[in-house]
Amino acid sequence: MKHFTFRWLKRIYALVAFKLFLIALCLTLLRIFLISIDDYKEDAALWLAEEYNINLSVEDISAGIDFDGMVLTLNNIELLDSADLPFVLKLDHLFLHLNFWESITESSLVFNRISLQGAQLTVKPGSESTAKSEQSLLTLDSLKKIFLQQLNKFSIKDSVVKFKDHLGNDKTIVIETLRWLNKGGLHQGVGAASLPNSLGDNSLQFVVDLQPDRSSADREFSGQLYVDADNLNITDYLIDRVNADARIAKAVLGFEAWADFSLGKSSHFNKIQVALQNSQLSWSQSRHFNDWQLNGGLLQLTNNGQTWLLDSYDLDIERNQKKWQGLNINGYGTRESAYLDFSSLHLADLLPFYLLGSDLSTEQITYLSAFDMDAQIEDLSLVKNKDNTLNYQTSLKAFKNRPQGGIPGLSNAHLELSGGLSQGELSVKLPKQKIYFDGQFSRPMPVKSGLLDLRWLQSDTGFKLYSEQSLLKTEDLDTTTQFSLFFPNKKAQNQSPFLSLYSYASLNDAGKAQHYYPIKAMGDDVFDYLQPTLKKGQVKGAKILWYGAFSNYPYEQHNGIFQAWVPVRKAQYDFYGQWQGLTDLDLDLLFENDWLTMHARRAQLGQITVQKLDGKIDHLNPDGILTITADISDDAQEISDYLKNSPLKDSVGNALNIIEVQNELSGKLQLSIPFNRETMSEQTVGEITLTDNDINLHLTDELTMPLKEVNGKFSFINGDLTAQGLNAQLFEQPVDFSFSSKEKDETYQVNADIAGIWQLAPLSGYHTVLQPARLSGSLDWNGSVDFEYNFSGGYEFDVAFNSAAQGMISGLPAPFNKNALQSWPTDVQISGDDYNAKIKAKIKDKLVLAGAMDFHGDSPTIPYSAVNIGGDDLSVVETNQHIVKVNLDKLNLTPWYEKWLELNEQGSFEADKESAAVFSLDEIKVDIRHAQFFEQPLAGLKITALNDKDKWSADIYSDNLQTTAEYRFGVPVRVDLDIKKINFQELDLSKFNADKESVAMKKQYQSTNLMNDYPEVFAECVECIVGDINLSPLSMHIFPSKKRLNIDYIKIGSDNEFTSISGIWDQRRTNVIIDSIADQNNNPIKRLGYVNPVVYQKAELNGAFNWIGAPWEFNFDSLNGAFAAEFKDGSITEVSDKGARLLSIFSLDGIRRSLNLEFDNVFSKGFNFDDFTLSGNITDGIVENDDFNLNGSAGRITGEGLIDLPNFDTNYKISYSPAVTSSLPVLTAFAINPLTGAAVLMLSKLFEPVVETVIRVDFSVKGPIDNPKVELLSSQKAKVKLQDSEVLEEMNKYQPQNGPLVP
Amino acid sequence: MAFNLCAVQMLSSAAPGHNLQSLIRLLAERSPEPDELVLIPENALCFSDKETYLALAENLGDGYYQTRLAELAVHYQCYLVCGSFPIKSALENKIYSTCLVFSPQGELVNYYHKMHLFDALVADKKGLYKESDTFTAGQDIKLFDYHSAGSSVKVGLAICYDLRFPALFQSLREQGAAVILLPAAFTQVTGDAHWLPLLQARAIENQCYIVAANQGGLHPCGRETYGHSMIISPWGEVVKELQYGEGSIKCEFNQQLLNKVRQKMPLVSHNRFSSSFRRK
C-alpha cells in the first residue's frame, strides 16, 4: 500500500515539476525584459492555460535575466483545478527560462527549460478511491504531458510531498533535488530524497528511468528504479505507527533496491531486488528490550502481473545480539493471495513485532507477554479478501506457553491458526502431557489427550475467544467444554473479561477431585477446607456453567452466573477435626456463584443412616462457612456413640453419658464449619426428635432415672442443648421436662426442669418400697436439676424438687396420713459433687431432713443426718452425728406398730438392713405431748436415746412409763431395763398378741448360734402394770447361749409372795420350772388380772412344764409336765368375772353353785376349806389328776379326771362329802328331812342324835373348759350321829335364853 | 385486706348436684372477696336420709364434691367451710358428719367430725332424730388458722347440735379460738326455741365471734329448718342476720372489739373450771 502510493506521487511530482519549470522560465524572461510584466500576469496565466491546458493562479510575475537569458518568474503559484483533484500543488517559484531568440523568430514564447523551487504537493486523503472528474483527468493528463513531453528537462529542489498514512498521521517526504530529462522517448530522473529526521542524516538516492511501452496503445511506460538508502532514519516515520507502549530506540534502514516496473493502467513492479545492509530496529516495550539488526541479505520479488515469487538469500539477522540461524523465506502468490514458507521461524520471533504494531493496551500487552508463548511457525498463507482485508492460515508446532490466569500452560501442542486480522480459528491438539496452571489447581493436570477447537474474533471493543467443543482427558477426568471468552480492548477498557462456559465432566475417582478444584476461584481457605473432604467416589456428568464478567464474580448482584453441579456417587466425605465423615454417600454438589450447596438423599454418618443431607457454603471466601444439615434416623445408641466420638465428646458426649437414649431416633444434625478455623469456631447444631424413646438419666453411678416413651425434640448448638416440652413416662407415670446445657470454657452445665402429675397407686406398685405408705391420688410435682461437669474432672449438681402434694393420699399413720385436698408443701434439695452430696428435705410441718452422702469409698456412706419429725426447722445440724428428733403434739403408736408388722411381713426390713448399715444413729429425741400405744395414753412422753458406740442408752419418761434402758452391742446383745414405772392399765394387747403370734410363727428355723439372734435381758421393774396384770415388782434375766435360750430367772413379787420361773429353750422345746408362793393379798391369778374364786391364806404351786416351741410359743398340744399345788385356809367364792374361768378346769365354782342350788343355798357365801391340794401330770396337753382333795369344814371334795387342754375339754368326776356334823347350816342343807330348830334341839336333848342326811354327792364335769356341764350324778344318804359334833355345840349356842331358833 | 366473715344460708335438697349449683349461684351473688371466710350450712350438699348419705360419702380429702368445693375456694380465693359433708369412717355402715375447711389454694386445711350426734325427739313431723344410726362421732376438737394480709386468727369448728354443749366451745376458746363456726340444720321447732339464746350464750361466755350458717325454710323433703343464720359479736350482739330462704350475710371481724371485750371482762383468768374431753 505504501509503496503503491509513493509510486504515484512520484509520477505526479515529475509531471508537475516539469510543466511548472517551463512556466517559470517564461515568466522570468518576461520579468527581465518587461519591467511592467506584472501587468501581464493575467495574460501569462491565460497563456499557460491555453498552452499547457492547466489553470494556475499566479500572485505576481517578475522577469529577469540570468546566465541563460531571460527568466520569467511566477511567484506563489497554485494549481487551480476541480475540487476532486487528488492533490494540491503549490509552488513558491516557477522559473521559465525563455529562449529569447527563438521566441522572436517564431513569434511565440519558447522556453529553454523550466525549474521549480519550493514545491509543495499535498496528497488528499482517500484520493485513490475517489472518482475523478473529467476536468481533473484532463489536468492530470496535461501535467503528465508537460513534464514528460513538453519540457525537455526540468528540476525541482527543496520541495516536499505531504500525505497522510493509514493511521491518518501527516507524513512528509523531502525531495531535495530532482533533475528530470526528457529526451526523445526516454525519461530519466535523478534525485535525492529524505525523510524528516531530527536524529541523524538520511540518505536515499534514486534514479528513475522511463521508457514508453511501445507495445501499449495507451502510452504506458516501463521503467527502472534504483534506490540507495543508507542510514535512512525512519524513527519519526515509525513513531506514530507503533504501539504507545513502545519506545523506538533506533530505526535505521540501509539497502539498495532495483526494481523494474510498469506504469499505466496496470502499474506494478515486475521485479524487485533488495540488497539489505546495516539496518537496525531497536525498541523497548513492556519492560522488554528488542534489538534487531539486519546485516545483510537479499530479497527478490518477481512479479509477472498475475503471480509473484519471493525468495530470500543469505539473510544475516541478529536478534538481541544473537545470530538468527537458518531463517529463510520463500513465497508465492497473486494479487489476492500469498503463501509463505518459513524455516526457522518461531512465534516468539514475531510476537514482538506484533506487539510493536498493535493497539493493545499496556495491560493487555503485559498480559499477553506473560504467556511467554512460542511455537515453530512452519508456513503462512495469506489471502486478500474483496474488502482488501487479509486472511491467513498457519500451523504452529511445539506450541508452549506459560500458564497465566485462567489460561493453562501448554507444551508440545499443535496449533492450527487461521483467520484474518479480526477473526480466526485455532485448533489445539494436546498430546499426553502435564498442563500447568497458574496456581489454579493443586497440581499440574496430567492430560492424556486434549482437543481444543477455538475461535477468536477481534471487534471494535475487544477480543473474543470461543470454542464449540474442547475435549480434555486426564487419568481421572473427562471433560467436554464450550466457552466464549471476551477480552475488551482500550475502547472498552471499563469492561471486564467476560466468560460464557459450559462444561460436562466426569471424574472416575472423586478422591482426586481436590486436584480439579479451582483454587483461585475458591480461595485458599475454601480449597484447604474442601481438599481433604472428598475421599472417594465417582462423578458422572458434572456440569459447569459460567456466564458473566470476571469483575462481577461472584455475582452477588445477580449479574452473572457460575454453577458447577457435581454428582458424586458412592463417595466418602470427611469432615475436619474428629467428626466422623460421611460414607456411602450419593452427593450432589452445586457450586453457584460464591456459594456451594450439597444435597444427598442418603448417606452413612459414621454408623448412622442419614436420610437426607443438605450442605451449604454461603460464601466461598475466607470467611465462608460450610453448613451441613443431615436428617438422621437410626438407633439412638449409634447416634449417641457418634456424638460421643465427635468434638462434642466433652459436652454433648458427656451429656449423653448422663442421658442414655434408647430405641430409634430421628433428627437433624447441622454442622457449621468455617474455613478459617483460626478465627472462627465450628458450630454444630442439632435437633433430635424423640418418638417413644427410652432415656435413662444416670444421675449418679447408682441412681438412674428411667424415662420411658419420651416424646418431643431437643436441639443443641455445639455443646449447648436445649429441650422444651418433652414428655415421657417415669416409673410408668407421665412427666414433662425440659433441659438445657451450656458449654463453657472449663465446665459443662446441664439444667433441667421436670414436672409431673403422678398417680401414686400405680407408682406404689412400681416401687414396692412405697407400698407401706399406701399412696394414692395424684402428686403434682416439679423439680429442677442443675449439673455442672468440670472438664478437668469432677462435677457438681443441685437438684431441687417441690410439690404442694395436694391430691396425694397417704395411708401412713398419723401424722403422715394425708388426704387429697390437703396440701403438704414439700421441698427436697440435693446438692453436691462427685465426692459428697448434701440433702435437705422438708414436708410441710411434718418432717425436716438434712444429711450428707460421701462417695469417696467403694460404697457411699452417710457422714451425718438429721431428721426432725414434727416440723421443727433444722437451724443447726451436727455434721458428725445422726440424729432423729420427734416433736409431736400427739402420736398414736399403734398404727405405726401395725405398719411395722406390715413391713415386716413384706420383708422390707430385710431389704433395709443393708442400707441401715450405711450409718448408725447417734441420738434419738422424742417429745410427744400426747402419745398413745395400744389405747394406752402416754402423756408427756419424752425419750432421749444416745448411742455411745458401745451401747444405746435411753431415758424414757411419761406419766405412765418411766424407765431407763440400755442396749449394748455385742454377741449377744444385752438389754438392761430399769423400769421405775409401767402403768399401762388401758393397754389393749389383743391385737398385739394376735400379731405377736403371727410374728412368732415365722421364727421356725434353727439357729446355729442363738446369741446372734436373741439378746440377754436384765430387767428390773418396780411398778409393772399392764392392763389388769400387775407384775410388780419384776426382775428378770434371760440370756442366750449358742444352742439355748436360758431363762435364768423371772421373779414376780417380793420375798413372801412371788412367782419364780426358770428354764431353757433349746430351739425345740421349752422347759420351765415354776415355783410360786402366794398369800392372801397377791397371787398369780390376781396378778394376771383375774378375780380368783379361791381365796386363801397361803398357796404354793410347783411345776415343771415343757412344750415344743419357744417360750413365747406356749401351746397345749405339746405341753408336758407335772405340777402340784396346795392351798391353805381358803374358800371358794362366787365370782361373776369371766376371768375366773381360769379355774373352770376344775369347775369348782360350778360345783359350788350346783351344791348351792341343790342344797338350800348352803354355799352362797362360799365354800371354806382348810386345805386344798392337787397334783397332776400333763401329757401332750392332757392333764391327768387323781388326787384332787379339798378339805373344808363343810366337807371334803375329791376328784379325778382328765382335762384335754388342746381340745379345751374336760372330763372330771368330783365327789363331795359334806361334813354334816360340822355346822348346823350344813346339816340343815343336807338333811333329808327338814329340820326345825326345835326338832333339832329336841333331838339333841332327848335322843341319841341321829340324822338322816346326804353324805356324798357325785358330779360329773364335762364339756368345754370354759363352760363345762356340771351334772349331779348321784347322792348317798345315811344316818349320821351328831354326838360330840360341832353341830351340837353350835346348837347349844341357841339355847332358849336366846329365843327360839328359827332357820 | 381484712378478715371478712360470711355465712351462707341454704335450703338444701337430697340432690347434691342441685345443691352444688345453688351454692355456686349463691357464691356468685355474694362474690366473696379474697381471703374471705365463707361458711355454708350443715348438710349443705345433701339434706336427706341415711342411705343417701352413705351413698354420697367420700373418703376424706378425696372425692368429686370435695374437689368441687376446693375449686370454688380457689376460684374465689376464699376460705370455704362446708358445714358438713358425709365422710367415710373405718366403720362399715357409719360415716362422719364432717365440717371441711378449704383454703384459698384449694387445700383441705382442716376438718372436724361432728362430736355430738343429734339423737332426740322433736315435736315436728319427723319426730325422732337419730343421727347415731348414720354417723359416728368425732373424737377431736379442731381449729384452724385463718390467714389474711399476713396475720391470722384461730377459728374453731362445731356443728349444729354441738351448740348445746358449752364445754366444747370453752375448749375451743382455751385453744385460742377467736371465731367459732357453727354450721347447722336446726329444726324449726328447736331453732325457734333455742337458736338465738344458745348462740348468744356461746358468744358471750367465750367472748368469740360466732358465725352460724343454718339451713332455712321448708325443704323439698318436707322438713322445715329454722334459718336465721347470723353473725354474733363477742359481746353477744347479732351483727348480721338472715331469716328465711337462701342468701348470705357478711361482716368484718373486728380484732379491736374482741380484744376490748376480753380485756374488760377477763373471763378466762377468772374461770375456776376447766373443760375436759371425755372419749367414748
Question: Overview of this structure, please?
Answer:
The complex is a heterodimer of chains A (1303) and B (280). Chain A has 1303 residues and is α+β, with helices and mostly antiparallel strands. Chain A is 15% helix and 53% strand. Among the domains of chain A are: 1-186; 195-355, no CATH class; 356-375 and 385-611, no CATH class; 1044-1216 and 1225-1293, no CATH class. In chain A, helix 1 (2-33) crosses helix 4 and helix 10 (636-644) crosses helix 11. Chain A has a 67-stranded mixed β-sheet that branches. The radius of gyration of chain A is 73 Å and the shape is rod-shaped. In chain A, strand 33 (664-674) and strand 34 form a beta hairpin. Chain A starts with a helix and ends in a 10-residue tail after the last helix. Chain B has a single domain, classed as Nitrilase/N-carbamoyl-D-aminoacid amidohydrolase (4-Layer Sandwich). Helices cover 28% and strands 31% of the residues of chain B. Chain B contains 7 helices and 16 strands. Chain B has helices spanning 16-30, 50-56, 64-76, 166-174, 188-206, 255-264, 267-270, and strands at 4-9, 37-40, 79-88, 95-102, 108-113, 119-121, 128-130, 143-148, 151-157, 177-184, 209-214, 216-218, 224-226, 229-232, 238-242, 247-252. The radius of gyration of chain B is 17 Å and the shape is globular. The mean pLDDT of chain B is 93. The interface between A and B is medium-sized, with 11 and 15 residues.
Name the structural class of chain A. Answer: alpha+beta
Percent of residues in β-strands of chain A: over 45%
The share of residues in helices of chain A is 10-25%
Query: What is the distance, rounded to the nearest whole angstrom, between the alpha carbons of the first and last residues of chain A?
Result: 194 Å
